[in-house]
Amino acid sequence: MPLSEAQTYLDHLTACSPCYRDFLELQAKYRKRRARMIFALAASVLIVVGLASWAVLRQHNQQIARAVVDLRDRSMARGTETRPTEVPLEIQRNAAHLEIYLPLGSSEGFYDVRIASTRGEPLLTETGKAKIDQGVTRLHVDLRTPLPRPGSYVLQLRKPTAEWVSFPLLIR
Q: Model pTM greater than 0.70?
């Protein structure tokens, strides 16, 4: 409808109190409905962003918090010295749980796990329980204290009454 035709209706609306009241009521309902729609849209966006952030952070924390150390192809030479030619194992500093695949033939039971400086000073000592699962002896260790700062270290393992077995370790 062109503005010239609408002018007659606008003139009536401004002069007729019942029509103007109806117009204001319709206008208020429209504004309420629009405000509810904007609120619902904003709430939906916030919920989606919150859930997506939670999922990303959860996945990120699970990936980083768990470190897998595979010793299956390494030998269990006794002693606190590591072989200079052996490639160091690598783990992230923010790991809170170690899953260590012990060398083939390792038995189930409790193991002491220690991270020491390259000079042999113990920096962190924990205990974990190893179980054989599908032919692999898996040692689960929850770290109660954070790993040392990034650098070169020695990972040492032993059964409680045995000697330490050492592997070079790089913490990133």
A: no
CATH number of the domain within which 104 lies = 2.60.40
Query: What residues does 151 pair with on adjacent strands?
Result: 171
The residue with tokens 């070169």 is 152
| Whether residue 39 is found in the same domain as residue 80 | no
* Number of compact structural domains in the chain: 2
Question: pLDDT for 57-108, tens place per residue?
Answer: 876 655 557 889 999 888 765 555 556 678 899 998 888 889 999 988 889 9
Total count of residues recorded for the chain: 172
Q: Are residues 86 and 163 in the same domain?
A: yes
Q: Report, as an integer, the average pLDDT of 39-56.
A: 93
Residues 21, 56 within the same domain? yes
Residue 167 confidence (pLDDT) above 80: yes
Element (H, E) at 138: strand 136-142
Give the separation between CA 7 and CA 74, rounded to whole angstroms: 91
55 and 78 part of one domain: no
DSSP string, 62-128: HHHHEEEEE-TTS---BBSPPPTTSPPEEE-TT--EEEEEPPTTPPSEEEEEEEE-TTS-EEEEEEE
